[in-house]
Structure of Lipopolysaccharide heptosyltransferase 1:
Amino acid sequence: MKRILIVKVTSLGDIVQALPVVADIKRAFPGVQVDWASDEAFAEVVHWSKGVDRVLCAPLRRFKKARRWGDLKAIWASIAELRAYRYDYIIDIHGVYKSAIIAFLARSSRRIGYQSQDLGERGAAFAYSGRFGPRPQCNAWHGMRISTGEALGYEVEGPPVYNLRLPEPPGPVAQSVADEAAPVAAFFHATSKDDKKWPLVHWIEVGRELTGRGFRVVLPWGSAGERAEAEQIAAQVPGATVLPSMSVTEIAQMIEACALVVGTDTGFVHLAHALQKRTVMIFVATSPSHCGVDAPHRSISIGDGHSVPPVSEALEAIDYVYADAPMFALQHGTAAA
């Protein structure tokens, strides 16, 4: 086995959670080259993986929105780069048309994808010469690891290994967070869909509680509407700060400097988990058993995916992931784990 291509095109959280397949492959096949095909919008995240040897990307999402000639030329150029090597295997762990087209254009006689009932778009099946087994009964992230192992003939072992290394030096926001005397909690209140949001009054109540425990709350945002909501929260949480506009890399560096991350089912909260931060993920309209995070006494998902979790459940989750921190244990009279 010399070279393998992984196809996972979008989005931020899905790509982050798919990265452990790289460590699995390299454990099973020492010396193998692992390339990764993604949308240009998320390529920098793949570059952070210490195990990926070559990142292939194209502005697929941007071209779909703007239909600009320059983006089309970049896509054509990326095809030549994609076909520069012949692969022993191409593993499509995305399962939609665009990922299937990438798998089909790349050079290999072994292109493995999901069974028809497990595909995001059934027409993607045209690209594959082989299929994964039936989708396993586990969360989506472990399922990707199992499917890749089935395709390549190895057993998945141990917890996921993300192997992320963020660029240096950190930006000014991340540096200011790192220099804070008080521990910093980042609130990712924004989501891609309104039905995934947790009520602002709940964020305010949790923010006030954490401020009382000695934390300083920071609020990142990505759009004008999200900034307005962040300002509403900050106005009622003592000492809370609405952060300036930041790039994906700057937000990642800020997360790495934080003591605690609380957020909804969104990509940056998955990234916090991958960076081994103390993380609480809140589910309102999506499935925590399918898309959640979990690491003993470090990451936890709350909610049932059908209703709004109460503030008390969020605070219990924060107690769970933060109970072994010396400052927290001192303030709450608990013994450090």
Summary: The chain has 15 helices and twelve strands. The radius of gyration is 21 Å.
